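In this section we walk through a basic example: taking a raw amino acid sequence and producing a predicted 3D structure, encoded as C-alpha cells. The instruction is simple. Fold the sequence below.
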Amino acid sequence: MMNLYAKVLHGSYFELPAPISLECARAYDVPADGLDAVFPADALEELGELTELRLLLDGELVFDGLVDEQVLTRDAAGVRLTLRARSRAALLLDNEAIPQTFQHVSLRDIYNAHCRQYGFAGILYERNPTLSSFTVAKGQSEWQALENFCRQTLELIPHVEGQYIAARPRKPARRLTLSNITADGLRYSSFQLSNRRYGVISKVILKSDTKLYDTPVYNPQGEALGIRRKRYVSPPREWVNPRRSADRMMRDSMLKKRTVTAVLPGLVPAGPGDTAELADLVGLGRLIVYEATHRADGAKQSTTLLLVQDDYLS
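The resulting C-alpha cell sequence is shown next.
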C-alpha cells in the first residue's frame, strides 16, 4: 500500500490522492533520494506552496524530503500537479562549504562546521576519528567536505538516517531472498546479470614530491583479470594518504563490475544497504542493494533493484 503526504508552507501535513505516476530513486552512493510524482489536481489547485513530501510503502517511511519544484498543468487532459522532491541531504549538496584548512579536527568538528546548521539532530558514529590537518577545497559542497573526511578516516560513505547524519556502516533493514522457485522467495519479473570490464582501473600512478609520476599503486584484482587501464593522478590536498586514496579509487572502479538488476512486481520497501540473495542463480553469494527505484504508472507498479557484491563497498 502506498501513501503520500505533503506539507504546506507554514501549515501541516495532509494526504495526497493516489498519483497518476510516480518514481522514487534511492542509491547507496547518492546522499539525496529523489521523488517525482504527478497527481490529479482538481482538488489541489488552491493548496498554495508545498514544502515537504513523504512516501510510505506498507506503512514504512521510504522517502522524507523537501519539494524542489511544484508545477500545476491544465490542458485538454485535465488538471495535474507535478511535484519533484529530494531528501533532506539535498541541503548539504546545494550549499557550498567555506574553503579552509582545519588543524587537529575531529569528525564531530566537521559535522558541527558543515551539517549542524541545516537542522539535523546529530551525528551517529562508532568512533570519532581526528586528523592533524584536513583541507576543504574551493567549490566543494558541505556534503563533499563531510564525505571526504569520512572516506579518509573511516573508509566509508556517510548517509542520512531519519533526522541524523550517520558516519557508520549501514545496518541492513531487511534480508531479501529473490526466487521464482522457492516457496517463500520474493518473486521477480526479470533479472539481468552484467559483467563490465571497461570501468576497472588496474593501476594508478601518483605524482610524488619530486614532481614526477613515479609512485605506482596496483589493483591486484584488475591484473588477475587481465585488465590494463591506468590513471595518472596528482593527489589533491584533501588526500591525507595518497596511496590509500588511490587504492580506494581502484576499489570504486571494481564496485559495479559485476551487478544484478532485478525487477520485482509491486512496490517493495527495499532500500540501499539491504542484503539480498538471488537463490535461482548459484555462485553469486551475498549481494547488497545499491540502488532501489520504485515506479507506479496507474495500476502498473514495480521495484527495480541494482545489486552488487559487497567486497568493494565503503
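Looking at the output, two observations stand out. Residues 2-87 form a domain with the Phage tail proteins - horseshoe like beta roll fold fold (CATH 2.30.300.10). The mean pLDDT is 93. In the next section we compare this with other chains.
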